[in-house]
Amino acid sequence: MKKVIVCLLLLTILSGCFDRTEVEEKAYVIALGLDLPEDKESNQFDISMQIANPESSSIALGVGHSSEPPKETVTIRANDLIAARGTANAVVSRQITFDHTNILVVSEELARSKKFINVIQAASRDRQLRRGLQIVVSKERASEFLRNNNPTTETRPHKYFRFIMEDAAQQGFIPDADLHRFFQITEGDADLFLAAYATATPEQGDKNGLEDEYVAGEVPIQAGSKTQFIGSAVFKEGQMIDTLTGEETRLAILLDNTQKYVFGLGTYKDPKSEEFLITARFIPFDSANIVVELDKNNQATIDVDVPFNLELLAVPSLTNYFTNQKNKDLLIKTIEESLEKKSEELVKKTQEVYGAEPFYWSLYVRKYFKTIKEYEKADWNKKIYPHAKVNINYSLNQLTYGKLIKNSNLNEIRD
Q: Which of 1, 185, 192, 326 minimizes the number of CB atoms within 10 Å of its CB?
């Protein structure tokens, strides 16, 4: 009798795979898109899903043969992301899953509306959507962005999104803007959230700037793929209020210890020959040293020191900044002052225009309050930060010169 009972118990354990789904039976959504419908009064949204074709991925690896496209984009009118997933199976043969979704594209129109916070809430509850899901704001409708994004050098769409966003983030062109950070900052109600800014329909303008003085759509570049990821969308209290250029985004990342900036190529004015620009690789030496002091009247003083290394790569003027110590000191001073001036301009903009900051400096002021209620009553956004005195200092730790330490000698070339 005991053996029978044991066998019955084992049968209940073995029944755990009754609801299994084979990998080939699933449709993996690699990107989601959110848009407002044409009827702006409606409480529904246009939800787009870009589904990867596993057959195409196998062909890219040299296995099999097929003329099928690498992806399919489906747009559905629904109340939220979760409801849309169920409705989509009316046209998609496989079971739709968000397990491998890397990116959430939100149209600028929706991001600037008060409805965005309503539709994004569902993403925090669904078990399939990861908290590391990256939020991207597209200049055009999200459905258009997903359909017009046709990379020429990467046939696998899931790889494309991961690679381009990782590289752009390393360069500091876009911020790390995952779903977890959005809710953390928005619910904290003390800082600004930065999301990546992108477009697949660039403008045909004649704007001429330095390498990072653009937002997506303005970069004057000729390429097979029209998609551009540069700059950031600024969110305050869950609603988009402005955009920052790639340069401003880089500076915001440098002044925020919760963001990671690996390196970035930049150009600086040549102090000895102002008609030329110097190209150098900016490499953060360590995290910024941030000290926030608060007096009895809640007057804040914020001191920020950013240590960095610089690798000098191109000096078109051929000025000797390598062995001439006087020229070298002048170059270092010029670059440090330039970075400090631009950072101060960004801080001033956040204080006077936004009335809040995207640097997560509120973390350093909370120690002055015993309770959360005291901190909320002091009001970092409206009362403390806009009137704070901010001192920013950039300090060069090491200057290197790439593979050479000397320029060509013009006197020897042109005799």
A: 1
CB-CB contact of 280 with 338 (8 Å) = no
Pairing of strands 134-138, 193-199: parallel
How large is the greatest C-alpha to C-alpha distance in the chain, in angstroms?
A: 107
- Nearest one of 233, 85, 246, 71 to 159, comparing CA atoms: 71
Instruction: State the Rg of the chain over Cα.
Output: 26
Grade residue 401 by pLDDT with cuts at 50, 70 and 90: confident
Cα separation of 78 and 76, whole Å? 6
Closest CA to 344 of 309, 381, 394: 394
**Kind and range of the H or E run holding 342:** helix 325-349
Tokens for 322, please give them: 């390598």
Dihedral pair phi/psi, residue 384, rounded to 5°: -95, -60
Q: Percentages helix, strand, coil for the chain, rounded to the nearest 5?
A: 35, 25, 40
The tens digit of pLDDT for each residue in 276-312 reads: 888 888 888 888 899 999 998 889 999 999 999 999 8
CA distance 339 to 358: 18
Please check whether residue 137 is in contact with residue 240, taking contact to mean a CB–CB distance below 8 angstroms.
yes
* pTM for this prediction: 0.86
d(CA 149, CA 201): 9
